[in-house]
Amino acid sequence: MKRQISPGNQITEGVIWKQLLFFFFPILLGTFFQQFYNTIDMVVVGRFVGKEALASVGGSAGQIVNLVVGFFTGLSAGAGVIISQFYGARDTRNLNAAIHTAYAFSIAGGILFMIPGILVSPAMLRWMNTSPELLPSSEAYLRIYFSGIIFMFIYNIGSGILRAVGDSKRPLYYLIICCLLNIILDLVMVPGLHLGVAGVAIATVLAQAFSAVLVTAALIRSKDIYRLRLLEIRFHGRVLKSQLYVGLPGGFQSVMYSISNIIIQAAVNVYGTDTTAAWAAYGKLDAIFWMISGAFGVSITTFVGQNYGAGRHDRIRKSVRVCLLMDFGVSVFLTAFLIFFRMPLFHIFTEDSNVIQIGSHLLKLITPYYIVFVVIEVLSSALRGVSDVIIPTLLTLFGVCLLRIVWIFFAVPLKPSIEMVSFSYPITWITTAVLFIIYYNIKKRRLGS
After folding, report:
1. Using an 8 Å Cβ cutoff, are 199 and 190 in contact?
2. Rounded to 5 degrees, what are φ and ψ at 11?
3. What Rg do the C-alpha atoms of the chain give, in angstroms?
4. What is the residue-averaged pLDDT of the chain?
5. Cβ neighbours of residue 270 under 8 Å, at least 6 residues apart?
């Protein structure tokens, strides 16, 4: 039996740019707080422990965490797309099957990733040319992080379900609470109990566990058709197949992104601890862009998914154009902000003058090309909203991941320098953006007549 969804959650009517912004800002703020409490980890260890601890948390260990988290986030995006389509179509039976399958998937995924993560991380750190003085703290951070990774998986699925049905506010509220909790725990664990890098890992796991409880409780208490019932959490084969069809390409794409970034991190590590620390600090400033662009991506995927499920094709293509313009404008402003304030921003992480100099130099080289990636984010996310995932994934794998690896192994050795390593980003972004523009214009009829 189908029930009507509450009008407050619908994004299938109204002025498009207003609806996009209404959905976008809570996602942006939520992503900001998620990045913020990860950044606080680095600020605390950088200030209270030293640049070696900063490099340990944000260097090789951070790339390994991104690999695993990115893979699962890509997979869970498939669940979000399917849920948004069922919700837009008001298909109660399939919606419930999709939600409980997604939760079962998060629990199973957390268990499956925990043990290999604990066992394999030390070998990966050594393979990435991690400096010997950074290995012990990096290993400690990863082993603690992986021991509680199931909480992160559950939170991601739960908040993804809420966003898929148009509720982007509650995930924001939960992240704010957990961000404040993480900051308090960081200060207790590091300067208070002197646990160093292990302390920030423990704080992160505890904060993620609390966020998982909050989002799960919200879904259990829901009075709408997306209510979660713990005893009904299980796999539904047909729905799982649909979720994996949409999610696996994204998960695989994220893995290839992370592998290419791990290879880049290994290349960066060759230039010493100062460069590794600078790269780690730049990565947290760089995350501001990914936070904003990713929020636009989630917004347009959900927006397109619900309108596609509701048969509102007239709104889909226009929403893509509106989203592109908004993301372009924000990216230009952000680039100018980061370049202008680069020195005081790096001082947040460290007082080491050489680390600051290297980091600010890298920022000036890479940030002007952010605007190019906007095309990739928005177009690929819009296509994902209508379950068009195979070709976009192949375009990304070739244009970003494969070319980036080729650049590191063949171009960088011709003129070894951190500048040549950093150029792997704009070169591959430009190539991939061109490919997406071509493909989108070929397939745009599917996004509305």
Report:
1. yes
2. -125, 30
3. 21
4. 80
5. 129
Whether pTM exceeds 0.70:
no
Three-state SS for 7? Answer: helix
Residue pair 417/272 in contact (Cβ under 8 Å)? The answer is: no
SS3 call for 229: coil
Tell me how far the alpha carbon of residue 380 is from its chain's centroid: 15
Residue (of 436, 415, 433) closest to 425 by Cα position: 433
DSSP string, 16-68: HHHHHHHHHHHHHHHHHHHHHHHHHHHHHHHHHT-HHHHHHHHTHHHHHHHHH
Q: Look at the alpha carbons of 21, 24, 28, 30 in this order and tell me if their dihedral is positive or negative.
A: positive
Angstrom CA distances, 128 to 62, 121, 270, stand at 12, 11, 9
> How many helices (H) and strands (E) would you count in the chain?
18, 0
> What is 282-305 written as a DSSP string?
HHHHHHHHHHHHHHHHHHHHHHHH
- Going from the C-alpha of 436 to that of each of 63, 90, 372, the distances in angstroms are 26, 32, 11
> Which residues 6+ apart lie within 8 Å of 243 measured at CB?
75, 78, 79, 82, 98, 101, 102, 105
Q: CA-to-CA distance for 5 and 3, rounded, in angstroms?
A: 6
**The token pair that represents 3 in the structure block:** 């029930």
Amino acid in the structure at residue 34: Q
Percent of the chain with pLDDT over 90: 9
**226-251 average pLDDT score:** 82
The answer to whether the CB of 383 falls within 8 A of the CB of 443 is yes
In the predicted structure, residue 210 carries a pLDDT above the cut 90: yes
pLDDT of residue 266: 81
Output the pLDDT for position 8. 41
d(CA 69, CA 29): 20
HSE toward the beta carbon, residue 262, CA cutoff 13 A: 21
Please state the separation of Cα 292 from the chain's center in Å: 11
Report how far apart the first and last C-alpha atoms of the chain are (Å, whole number).
31
